[in-house]
Amino acid sequence: MSEVRVRFAPSPTGFFHIGSARTALFNWLYAKHTGGKFVLRIEDTDKERNTEEALKVLIDGMRWLGLDWDEGPEVGGDYGPYFQSERQSIYDDYLLILKDKGRVYKKDGALWFRLEGERYTEYDEFHKAEVEKVKNAPVIIEDAVRGRVERTEERDFVIVRSNGEPVFHFVNVVDDIAMGITHVIRGEDHLSNTSKHVELFKALDAKVPVFGHIPLILKQTGPGKMSKRDKGALIEEYEQRSFMPDAVRNYICLLGWNPKDDQEKMPIETIIERFDFDGVNKGNARFDETKLSALNAEYIRELAISDLAQYALPILESNGIDIASIEQPYLLKVLELCQTKIKALETLFGYIHYFFQDTYEFDAKGMQRIHKGVDPKVLLNEIMPIFESMEVYSKDELEAKLTTIAEANERKLFAYFPVIRMATSGLSGGPDLLPMLSVMGKVRVLPRLQSFLEKL
Ligand code: GLU
Q1: Which of 65, 83, 109, 370 matches a 20 to 30 Å C-alpha distance to 236?
Q2: Residue 439: what pLDDT?
Q3: What global pTM score does this model have?
């Protein structure tokens, strides 16, 4: 068998929709699975919408998801150019071939593609005009996902508009031929175009590629298809919200594909190995934010601490922390303490900020709460000598000393915890307290306790 060549052929619109990302991903997976080539072709014939920025959003999104392409913008290749806006001479050549075969005619300034078959004329009541129809043989599409689909094209169609712009159907097919595309994997919304495309492939004596139309992605609730306005629809949003790209990619794999054993979290190598058309569903997929967030949290939990640090540093920096002054071992200890508690990197800074700055806000509700029981000043005064006398705040030693004091004052050890936590973090929740104090050490903890005492 000849080498598989698939392509992702987006029209840049200024955002990277999860549906497009899924099309790109399935093509990429199929290329990797078969050892074929993945081509990125930019269908930028709409000059108004196709700006530099729109292209950048797309390319950044592809790179963020780790979807590298073998041929296309920035990497080149033997079948270029990879922008439709630069391929006019190729379209001219193919138009000539169709003209030579007598398959093109001009009507109302536009160039039409002539279907073969028996023509007859009918009166169109709506347009008040005679229309020519063709009694054409049905096009049979052996779709790799949907099975056999039959559709008859009845009307000739425009391939070059009166302003000289070639139409999507024509350039899309010409490029697939010229670029040697063997498999066209795209959204089900294109199924209705495919019979036109097959007619064009045949008219150009080209081998018809294998088509695989992948199911729609429905929004979280209700019947509609996921639109760009729906939360979670845009890939760039996930990047801004510090999602783990591997988790997002893993999740998108499951939108319309499953490995048949209900497994969800899988390394990409496993998915590549198992990905094929028989695992692609015919039925629509539904976007599920809860599942995506859970997967994301799992990926975070499984990161090596040093990798988590690579994600944490830019987050700290963008929140105004001078990361040059952070000592690596300290950062790693903080992250180790918090890793299992963090559900999303989006909330990481809120969870760990006080480890890296001495001024922080005191949670109002938490402050009220510590004033409800025993006077927090009394509590702090009881334990200050411990924190003053110890040099290294080991968890076990802290626990032993605090327990002794608690017993002497006829309290439970936990009685001290809320006020200590509030004093040292400004929060009423966080990682386990004693390990947290141990990581922070005397340099941070003691001054915070002292100034909190004054504040009280
Ligand atoms: N430019 C088309 C789109 O964005 C490509 C369709 C196809 O993959 O053939 O939907």
Answers
A1: 83
A2: 98
A3: 0.90
**Cα 425 from Cα 285, distance rounded (Å):** 43
| Local structure of residue 73 (DSSP, 8 states) | T
Question: Atom of ligand 1 at shortest distance to CA of 9?
Answer: 5
10 Cβ closer than 6 Å to some ligand 1 atom: yes
Q: Which residues of 102-126 are buried (b: 16+ CB within 10 A; e: fewer)?
A: ebbeeeeebbbbbbeeeeeeeeeee
pLDDT averaged over consecutive 10-residue blocks of the chain (456 residues)?
91 94 98 98 82 92 98 97 97 98 95 93 88 90 96 94 96 98 97 96 98 95 89 94 96 94 94 96 94 96 96 95 96 96 94 96 96 95 97 97 97 97 97 98 98 94
Least Cα distance to 54 among 23, 20, 25, 15 occurs for: 15
**Would you say 179 and 209 are in contact if contact means Cβ atoms under 8 Å apart?**
no
C-alpha 54/C-alpha 352 separation (Å) is 35
Residue from 268, 334, 335 nearest 307 by CA: 335
Is 11 a pocket residue for ligand 1 (Cβ < 6 Å)?
yes
Strands 139-143, 147-151: pairing is antiparallel
Cα 11 to averaged position of ligand 1 atoms, centre (Å): 7
Q: Which residues contact 177 (CB under 8 A, 6 or more apart)?
A: 94, 201, 204, 206
**Nearest to 307, CA basis, from 339, 354, 265, 337:** 339
Q: State if residue 190 touches ligand 1 by the CB under 6 angstroms criterion.
A: yes
Torsions phi, psi of 336, nearest 5? Answer: -60, -40
Q: Are strands 139-143 and 129-135 parallel, antiparallel or unpaired?
A: unpaired
- In short, whether 46's Cβ falls inside 6 Å of ligand 1 is no
* pLDDT for the residue numbered 262: 85
Assess whether the previous peptide bond of 81 is cis (omega < 30° from 0): yes
Does residue 9 have its Cβ closer than 6 Å to ligand 1? yes
Which domains, from first to last, does the chain contain? 87-214 (3.40.50.620), 235-300 (1.10.1160.10), 303-355 (1.10.8), 364-455 (1.10.10.350)
